[in-house]
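Budget justification note: compute hours in this period were largely spent on complex prediction jobs such as the one shown. Inputs:
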Amino acid sequence: WRSAPTRRASSAMEELLARVAVPLPSYETRDKSPPPPESTSLEFMNFYRGLEKEDKAGFLSRLSQDCGVDHRAVSDLAAKLLDTQRRDQATILQAEDRLRYSLTPRYKQLFSHVSRVPGGVKFLVDLRADLLEILATKASDSPHIRDLNSTLKSLLSEWFSVGLLRLERITWGSPCEILQKISQYEAVHPIRNWTDLKRRVGPYRRCFAFTHGAMPGEPLVVLHVALTEDIADNIQSIVREFATLDAEEDINKINSAIFYSISSTQAGLQGVELGNYLIKRVVRELQSEFPHMAQFSSLSPIPGFSSWLQGLLSQYRKEGRGSDLLSEQEWAEVEQAVGSNPGTPAADSLRKLVATGEWTRSEKLSLALEPVLMRLCAWYLYGEKRRGFALNPVANFHLQNGATMWRINWRADTSPRGVANSCGIMVNYRYFLNETSRNSALYLQSKAVAASEQVLGLVSQFQKNSKL
Amino acid sequence: WRSAPTRRASSAMEELLARVAVPLPSYETRDKSPPPPESTSLEFMNFYRGLEKEDKAGFLSRLSQDCGVDHRAVSDLAAKLLDTQRRDQATILQAEDRLRYSLTPRYKQLFSHVSRVPGGVKFLVDLRADLLEILATKASDSPHIRDLNSTLKSLLSEWFSVGLLRLERITWGSPCEILQKISQYEAVHPIRNWTDLKRRVGPYRRCFAFTHGAMPGEPLVVLHVALTEDIADNIQSIVREFATLDAEEDINKINSAIFYSISSTQAGLQGVELGNYLIKRVVRELQSEFPHMAQFSSLSPIPGFSSWLQGLLSQYRKEGRGSDLLSEQEWAEVEQAVGSNPGTPAADSLRKLVATGEWTRSEKLSLALEPVLMRLCAWYLYGEKRRGFALNPVANFHLQNGATMWRINWRADTSPRGVANSCGIMVNYRYFLNETSRNSALYLQSKAVAASEQVLGLVSQFQKNSKL
Amino acid sequence: WRSAPTRRASSAMEELLARVAVPLPSYETRDKSPPPPESTSLEFMNFYRGLEKEDKAGFLSRLSQDCGVDHRAVSDLAAKLLDTQRRDQATILQAEDRLRYSLTPRYKQLFSHVSRVPGGVKFLVDLRADLLEILATKASDSPHIRDLNSTLKSLLSEWFSVGLLRLERITWGSPCEILQKISQYEAVHPIRNWTDLKRRVGPYRRCFAFTHGAMPGEPLVVLHVALTEDIADNIQSIVREFATLDAEEDINKINSAIFYSISSTQAGLQGVELGNYLIKRVVRELQSEFPHMAQFSSLSPIPGFSSWLQGLLSQYRKEGRGSDLLSEQEWAEVEQAVGSNPGTPAADSLRKLVATGEWTRSEKLSLALEPVLMRLCAWYLYGEKRRGFALNPVANFHLQNGATMWRINWRADTSPRGVANSCGIMVNYRYFLNETSRNSALYLQSKAVAASEQVLGLVSQFQKNSKL
Amino acid sequence: WRSAPTRRASSAMEELLARVAVPLPSYETRDKSPPPPESTSLEFMNFYRGLEKEDKAGFLSRLSQDCGVDHRAVSDLAAKLLDTQRRDQATILQAEDRLRYSLTPRYKQLFSHVSRVPGGVKFLVDLRADLLEILATKASDSPHIRDLNSTLKSLLSEWFSVGLLRLERITWGSPCEILQKISQYEAVHPIRNWTDLKRRVGPYRRCFAFTHGAMPGEPLVVLHVALTEDIADNIQSIVREFATLDAEEDINKINSAIFYSISSTQAGLQGVELGNYLIKRVVRELQSEFPHMAQFSSLSPIPGFSSWLQGLLSQYRKEGRGSDLLSEQEWAEVEQAVGSNPGTPAADSLRKLVATGEWTRSEKLSLALEPVLMRLCAWYLYGEKRRGFALNPVANFHLQNGATMWRINWRADTSPRGVANSCGIMVNYRYFLNETSRNSALYLQSKAVAASEQVLGLVSQFQKNSKL
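Corresponding output:
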């Protein structure tokens, strides 16, 4: 990303913006003004799409700066509003409405027009993905561009309001176009082939997606569910178990719904609540299909645990503390199992073990590490915060939704990926339906995390051992 | 409609509103606040639906008054904004954003939540229909209720943005649920039975509707099109001609698309542009089906012409002028044909003829009246204005869309209804595709009406005769 | 219908048949012969369609006579077969196969080709309807035409084999094309308007049809079901009760499925079992939707009862017996209620009452006639036979399917039509699922009618009273 | 396959067949007999499915032998028919009909019942696949089993009559269930991944299949079509060219439809004409989409050419002839290019070259071999026969359909598979629509092959060179 377009590009931009991002009609004629011809919006879209990546940042900067609100008009109307404070209600209301109208950025009007042409909504979703990348990479970070982003986000929130979304159950009979995207977007537990894919939508499985009328054939957020007897503690049994591929579902074996993967597909819809609503809708759907179903839980990955742990160990090593995290006996066991060079600092050995995942090959080491990694993981999930909320994004998502941090599972994902990311550990966030509202409010407002005794027990073990 | 609810109802309302129309989160926490549980929105919807019609006005009054913006907060932030005018841009932008946020009425937030529950959007469309009726019947006319209406209209405009609408072609194979509604909503040329209905969706006909994901099975606006050789000048040949019911379309006989009926079905979407966009989409659709099609035109009714004419004649009679509208010879012909009592004022006879439609039974009278009624009608359509725009609502609609007032047709609707409403006259508004943008802008901005020579000729005849 | 075509038509027919109904390929080349071009079949279809009704009979006669089997070839091969009887199995089998092949009529081959072109199957269904009409009206009754009919029937039986039929549930969301046909074909309880129709496919109702790939959009046989608490004894409560039109179904109120109307739509499929299979499929469908549903029953009309009864009374009157049908007291009550002219024979009065339906207006008469008409009706259904099977066609249909004649219901159809056809009486044929197979076999093989105690009781009352 | 089941299995079979393959009803009661309960058919299906592969042959043998026709009854009725020859027509017709009825094997009746239960038709298709395998492997080859096969084939021909098939266009939006099968069944040019598959149904491609109501979701025969400017002479440009994957089709570049792959999916439908009809339907479909399309042609593989050629060379070598196939100069060029050991016989070198495909790596060799292989291939296609028809099955298929052997293409399939099977050569069978009927009849009746000048030229070159 580069935010300074060439001079020539620059003048073309100016010229275009002058044409397409016109001032709002006057307050009086706002309902009497015809929209611009569609060709204007299409021209804008084509111009933008034709820009090199590095020119887009410059263009969006300019759009945000030159086509926002008319600050002078706003301050004039603010002053007028203050003047009317002693007047009658009707006068005040009108002054407020004029002020509100004047606070509409020109680019908001432009985006509204764009949303009306075929493909316009998808265009804006993608444009916002660019904006977010620009903000993330600091290619441009003016307050204007942040305003632009927040205006666009709020427009998208209206258009992707949950009332306008359609819940679709994806089956083996769904269009290939959709299933291929499901397959491609599934980042949590990658889908490798037809059989894999068929399993995800086969018996004892459900796959749901929200779609939207303005982006046909495009699943916006996808939720994979396994229907099981008990709350699952292992992901391989879900994504690699094909015994039941042609089975008829036995309703008596279905007591639990396990949300084992949820993926958003549109970068540009970041911050627009979709996943949360999808889980709620799916719970309702499942309850109507299985009236007696009583257990709803995720089986979730813990991305970042390994890196966090390695960072922690590095730091300890630097600070020469190391010993705090494990009890003396634990250190001894680890060293014995590793047969490590006596000169090597223990924390270093451990860091290497975690980094390489080699410990999984030794039964002895696994046994020695299990209590250590479990309590560290519990702490990572429960105790590590960012601005007061859970640092781990998956934890943060489910806690916001009102779930309880319910069970941390050892050897839950023994794939290389699972070992590398989280030492093979996974966690269930459980949805107790009559508690989710309260949990959600408590978490968002007081940052309180609902957790089970197992989790709290592990956390307290961690706290006893470490002096963190 | 009655706007003063009983005391008991009143306290229940207060109690409910306090619970469901809560204040907005503080500016700082606006992205961190969980939405209320769905049950809150459902409670609001059920409460409102349970109200007697006369209590609804009172309830909406209260909602608009008690759950708008916090005027003090707004004026404080307006004052702050004025204080920041000399500060840096970031500070100004933030002050503006805070002010903008403070201008969001509480009921807007409530409506957003309602839109998220199943059936919520349809509920709000119906609520707006109530609001419009209240405003129309002056049951309540506070500035607050007008603000409520305009807030809701702008929300609906976002949700029913044309990018979110789906164009559906309605055929005999469409769900009965839809076709029954098409049949029921068709107000322009009522559909009487299965055969009538089948004709409207049969060969040489097209029927299109916009539908919306949030209101499945509900056509929002419906356009009926006839495919003809020449631009049709008679409606009976379209709606009552069944010879071709089982014919195969002969593409060589299809040169023109005649929009002979367009109906909006949702009172609550008044002011949300749908019909205009539907015509544009349909034109595009037809062009892709019939690449060589070159003539697009409406064949439109002229509701109000008879009443206007009768009003005019009454007034002339009162003012004793009468004679201005017709030439002496014309008066003579009418009198002769009527064989009217010499004592009866001529204007009176004419008014009665128009009111009863009896003139249609006499060939002589018809011949005598044709030039008179044609030029009067041309004037009615072209010259009669309301706030500068065409008084006739159908004319106003097509002129806004950029159509040209193209041809006024004698004996175009010989049904009793057609004779009663507009002396059997209908009009073609023609869409010259490369002129509609310009025409639309000219009409909306300068109130200029695009009209053909035929129309202008009739208008000038009228002007010569009358001293209007 | 007229079976002798004009000479000119006649020679055109001959010429056509010679061209399209060609001899079968020799036995040796039967798998190596290309089918004729489609145009041949289309020519045949167009020729036939173009014939006047009266020429069709002649044409079909000729087709049946001139394009059947080659009798000489058949008898030669029969002789050969007899010669091979002492030879080895392979030789016998081949002789049989050649004989079998020689017994294929040329028109069978023609029909096979016709079935392969678009619309061909429907054409043959309609052609068979013509054949049946010809046979019924004796327009032509040669053994050849009966053979033609039976060949065509057996072909249609293969093509409309139940494995090739599709069960479709018809709802308010089904294509209008289908629902209009449902409406039009419903002969049992005519559908009068949209609301009527909506009711038939609304809550507490099910409407199922078999469709076939070769006749898209055409329901072949339609079954209407009401879901009720108890087995219904009145049809108006089903077809005219609209209270529940927008209700949600309460599953706890659904214990019984009442088949209240079944209609075949294709005259040409007479004798091809469809209704029977449809009932079975629907039972299975309902059981899977309502696993606890335990009562399946028809509520059926009794067409022909009134006419039968009037015939009986006329005959009695002629024979001067009259008195046998009613007890003396019953005659007295009738006479008293009628206040009939003492001179009028009682049987005559009764016949008139039945013919006019006037008795329904007098409570007294109704009471007097109830026991009489009920036992007469029971006898009509149970005792009146044709070739050993139930004379009443509806009874015969359900008894063949294995149903039990379960309950005769007074005042069950109080519509004018119901009173005129069957004195307002209707009957439930009940399907006890684990008895239907046995019942069906018993009825078809030994002509035994399964009936409930109520029915048998009424029959025995009848027998006691009358000396029939 | 083994045809002698164990004793225990054997008695279970006998017992089952006695129960399910019951004698036909008597001629008189044939229309009055209820079908057996569905459970009987299901029992038969389950029994058969449960058999080991080796027991199936024994079971089918027994079925064919014990449940055929009653030979004595047949010969009695044949004798009776001979007795009636001098009687009236009605008597003869009836005797014929009785004889015909007696020639119906019991297993035919059984199959009819099976076809009526869900899944029954698919079961019979699979059963016939078993039968064909048994016949092919000579596991059992009694005349009875051949009769069984031909009876089943003729039943399947009725059920899969083209009028009952549905043409479906397969697109990227078709159900995954279908597309996966398309992918899996595509034997001609294997599909390797999503992109490959997407290409086959993307722009400038069409993929059509016949499906059948009794086997939902199962494409029966699949035709892949490429839409091109000129008649394609290379398959890689069709199946590996992805440049146009997201292109919009330019109708001006579409002059030809190339059928580049056709696959039947159901072994059990062998001999039931489907592919032929599919091509005809697709031609009609394409003509209606592209009215001006004038060129229809296959681009077909030549399976068996390499093996045939190697066989020929082996034989020549044995017979010491070798030199006949190539001119002296050609032999010299080959030897020079190969640099072959002077001792090695030339035919041997050539055979090795063909077997290994190594010649493709040398430009020189390729040039030398081109004329040789082209004329040999032309001969293989045009001149090599089996029972008078083309030996090559693909050629036989298209010639039966009435295509012309139009162009043999060098370097048309350069994949390893293409080189191994047919030295990289492919052939276009062209469909001249107004000649196909005549060509088909000529080929089937007189075995005449329609071929272009190019093909005939190559053939005559071959004949000049070889003394074959």
